[in-house]
Amino acid sequence: MRDPIPPPRTLINLTNPLARTLSLRTLPLHAHEILPSFTLYTYLHSSLIPFASRHLFPQIYPSLAPRTKTAWNARAVSLLSSCVLNTAALSVIYLDRERWAMGPRGRVWGYTGASGMVQGFAAGYFLWDLAVCAGNVEVHGPGALMHAVSALAVSLLGFRPFCNYYGLNFVLYELSTPFLNVHWFMDKLGMTGSTAQLVNGIALVATFGASRLVWGTYQSVRMYQDMWIAFEAPGGLPVPPWLALAYVVSNTTLSVLNFYWFGRMITTLRKRFEKPSNEDDEKGTKE
Questions:
Q1: Does 164 reside within a domain?
Q2: CB contact at 8 A, 3 and 30
Q3: Which residues, other chains included, contact 151 with Cβ-Cβ below 8 Å and sequence gap of 6+?
Q4: Peptide bond before 104: cis, by omega within 30 degrees of 0?
Q5: What is the pLDDT of residues 23-35, one digit of tens each?
Q6: What confidence score (pLDDT) does residue 287 get?
Q7: Residue 38 belongs to some domain of the structure
């Protein structure tokens, strides 16, 4: 399936030298998706979202601490981006018949323009995410920075092309992101512990567990199996050890972070909605 957004020839010519240097052969075909998405998210984060938030939430947003405003702006971009990426990835996975016909070698070395389009949008977002996390580590934390580095590496390696098939499947990690960000915004909007937050929390746990833990682990195992087949294929195109290692390390980092965040998420949600015990009630009464 072709990329439905044709690349401009001028941009292809401009990015070819960089692509040859980095051995990312299909990168010039999708630079027109990476650069505009990076630019758009930068504009949203620095200008449009702060402007809109001041007008939509005049009693809340201006009174937030600078660190919280930074997190608010970034989470708003993350919310919008995840909706776009989820829609694009699900559409291509469903419609791209070339992907459906791929065997193990195709899933490791194959490429379709439509999959590259989604990876281009993802790379633009993760490039922006890396810049924001690196510039605000004290706000977003080292875990978010590690996630941005690993996700960008997986996205860019898809332009070699390498595991372009699986890179698109891993984009579906973002299915849980809208619920995660809505949960955070509910806290800031005075909806902590509300029924709406409980419903959103259930959806968050369900989508996070299904997309990142179950789906992500299943896709990782399948990817490792296909890599091994590519290694052993006689007369085929072997996987360079450094390339397999880079992809495996990046993907494993994402998987470890997902399991770690899931544990923290369960703990946080339990604190939000657990009723205090009788002993706690009595203690509170005495105090």
A1: yes
A2: yes
A3: 122, 126, 129, 250, 254
A4: no
A5: 999 999 999 999 9
A6: 35
A7: yes
Report how many domains make up the chain: 1
| Domain enclosing residue 187, as ranges | 9-276
pTM higher than the cut 0.70: yes
Whole-number pLDDT of residue 220: 93
Of 102-106, 135-139, 196-200, 270-274, minimum mean pLDDT range: 270-274
Alpha helices in 23-136 (DSSP H): 31-43, 49-56, 66-95, 97-100, 104-109, 113-135
The C-alpha atoms of residue 255 and residue 146 are separated, in whole angstroms, by: 12
Q: Are 75 and 184 in contact (CB under 8 A)?
A: yes
Tell me how far CA of residue 131 lies from CA of 39, 102, 161, 177, 248, in angstroms. 12, 35, 24, 19, 23
Give the Cα separation of 109 and 88 in Å (integer).
Answer: 21
Q: Is the dihedral of CA 260, 74, 186, 190 positive or negative?
A: positive
Q: Is residue 285 part of a domain?
A: no
Q: What's the rounded Cα separation, in Å, for the pair 212 and 256? A: 10
Closest alpha carbon to 187 in 202, 203, 201, 205: 201
Residue 86 placed within a domain? yes
**Tens of pLDDT, residues 39-95:** 999 999 999 999 999 999 999 999 999 999 999 999 999 999 999 999 999 999 999
Helix (H, G, I), strand (E, B) or coil at 112: coil
